[in-house]
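Notebook entry, structure prediction.
Reason for the run: the old model in the group folder had no record of what sequence produced it. Starting over properly, with the input documented here first.
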Amino acid sequence: MDIETLQQLASQGDPGSCMQLGHRLMRGRGVTRDYERAIACFDTAARAGDTDALYLLGKYYLKGVGCSKDPAGAVSCLEQAARRGHSGAALKLGSCFEQGLGAPQSAEMAAYWYRKAAARGESRAYDALLNLSLRAPHPPVPPVNR
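New structure, fully documented this time:
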């Protein structure tokens, strides 16, 4: 699809066109790179119900790409996407809870979202769960009575 048609459809709020244009704007493919405009495209797609757009917004809000850093806003977007079944969002949300980034630090909530991601086929979630368990404090082992 040519860029003019894509921009026209995106300006009318077509979620698929907004996603395509947002990706092109992020990468500078066929258009001048424009992170802020890309975020606006993803936002339009997210408001129209696109789960991948919510996930991308969450990632960009965490990094502050094309927008101010907003960890709490990122967690909100990621949680909405994860609740809709997005495995990558569930993985990233687990990481947010593990690190206390935009959400209270909670190994329990991190494990919850890592397990959700794993159940949805996200292979990196297994490593995240393993690493989380290795970092978790373990109760002392009582001495053996002889």
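Summary: DSSP finds eight helices and no strands in the chain.
The old model has been moved to the deprecated folder.
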